[in-house]
Amino acid sequence: MKVVISACLLGVRCRYDGGGSRNETAIKQGEKYALIPVCPEESGGLPTPRPSAEIVGGDGGDVLDGRAKVMTADGTDVTEAYLKGAYHALRVAQSNKATHVVLKARSPSCGCGDIYDGTFSGTLTSGDGVTTALLKRHGITVTSM
Questions:
Q1: Contact call for residues 30 and 24 (beta carbons, < 8 A)
Q2: Sign for the pseudo-dihedral over CA of 29, 30, 34, 40
Q3: pTM score, whole prediction
Q4: What are the pLDDT digits (tens) for 122-135?
Q5: Phi/psi class of residue 81: alpha, beta or left (left: φ > 0; alpha: ψ in -120 to 50)?
Q6: CA 25, CA 128: separation in Å to the nearest integer?
Q7: 44-48, long-range: CB within 8 Å, 24+ apart, which pairs?
Q8: In the chain, what is the straight-line distance between the N-terminal and C-terminal CA atoms, in Å?
Q9: Which of 16, 98, 131, 141 has the maximal Cβ count within 10 Å?
Q10: 49 upstream amide cis, omega within 30 of 0
């Protein structure tokens, strides 16, 4: 079985701050599954490092529906890059017939169940990131680490 996974969880230095989020549990998944790394934010055209961003006005589903935006702390609208990256991740999952995706927790792209609330205060709220919301809409199971 093939599993799409956030590249940062495998130690790729693609996080907004230029770091990785190497997760040994995620890496061990490679013993059972073929892991396919993806970074929706880089795939959407954003550089590494890049300013941190949060969803303002809702969650990833609201971004997909045009009711919310992804903004950096300095007020730059990066919604289009997040949408582009989400659709790239969807194409990767579909082309590899991946029914399960493991993404980075709390990210405005990859968060699953909890994301930052858009105030840049470190406060979490219920919701999914843009990529997670899109994948779920297409029947793909998403978990986070």
A1: no
A2: positive
A3: 0.96
A4: 999 999 999 999 99
A5: alpha
A6: 22
A7: 44/80, 44/81, 44/82, 44/83, 44/84, 44/85, 44/86, 44/88, 44/109, 45/81, 45/84, 45/85, 46/78, 46/81, 46/85, 48/13, 48/14, 48/15, 48/16, 48/18
A8: 19
A9: 131
A10: yes
